């Protein structure tokens, strides 16, 4: 079986081929104005390589869901699933090598960026045993990796850009080969675009985009004018997976199409006379007539069923149990403690945002037969910080002093501070950097050192290091200190 596919023909009619194995190692950038044929090119690439490699498509407009009609792709409507379910689907997709199209069409732009980031991060964070090769195609990449802040929220822009940067800069070692398409290079973050070694440049008109395209193709600026004259469906190609010198490629035909088809002229209805048309336009509406019946929307597949289609009956998202009567206060507190212990035992919870963790908490509470969620988001963040520090009983008077001191710190620092305070109250060894990093939601030792420096400057702790390099941390307001231990 060859790893090469034919993407089109050059000016002389000779086949232009792409080496898929080389593409996996070197990534691809596609650029062209709207109507230049980018989606047609991506569809040709996906169809020709469908039997060679796993494919994962981030589809903001729902254009590529029709691949499921002819190939083995699974179309996922992101609007039908929660954040936790999107992340679970991403993990299972890598494990079972399923080719999927994640359609973001039903979401607003902010939600599209956050959903794409969750999904890409789940692909990126898969265990090493699941690092199978996969093409990750992102259409309209300038939306998910913008060069500058726009109308979207800063939080959405930040998480989406980070996920795209991980895909293009660090994805290769994890088997993820980014294939990104954009209308404008000037709107795409440079550190994302710079990681591609293969290029297919279509028609573009703005000077800044032509100049960047010419630079990437190794062309002189005066040669950039030919990019403006490219016909629809023709691209200038360059890269180790295609050719060593720029070549003009006419993209070949495809087997599938978008749901809307192409936009072409249709004959107008036969003229019925001005008075007849006016009568139809201004006819009185029958007030008693029932509203037109809406076409029923197709039912979304439950996340459990979709994951089962990848992996069989062993689900990572347990089925919800039938709801029962709300238990008494003691049973509610016992259930909350049980849920918190389950979440702390999950290694993935250390790096989830508070909103995602709270959604996980609400689902687990329902699984424990709680008909109402006993904590709001603010109370949950405090209880979860305590749980990370090993303080599961919120009513234990031993923690009152530590909580009063912790109120002076930002919310994200409460968990590592309480971990230190608990060790100090018990006389246990000082928590090491790895434990504090998990409680802080990071894997960076530098951030842990800055965290300790900040808490010292606030006067809530005092850190000491002996001649043997062992660290102990005291909490002055509690009058207690941890035992010395290796940091």
From TrEMBL:
SMART domains named in the record: AAA
Molecular function GO terms recorded: ATP binding
Annotated transmembrane regions: none
Record Gene3D superfamilies: P-loop containing nucleotide triphosphate hydrolases (3.40.50.300)
InterPro entries in the record: AAA+_ATPase, ATPase_Atu1862_pred, HerA-like, HerA_central, P-loop_NTPase
Boundaries of every AAA+ ATPase domain copy: 24-214
Pfam families (alphabetical): DUF87
UniProt keyword ATP-binding present: yes
Domain of life: Bacteria
Keyword Cytoplasm: no
Keywords noted in UniProt: ATP-binding, Nucleotide-binding
Protein name, entry field: ATP-binding protein
Organism: Sphingobium algorifonticola
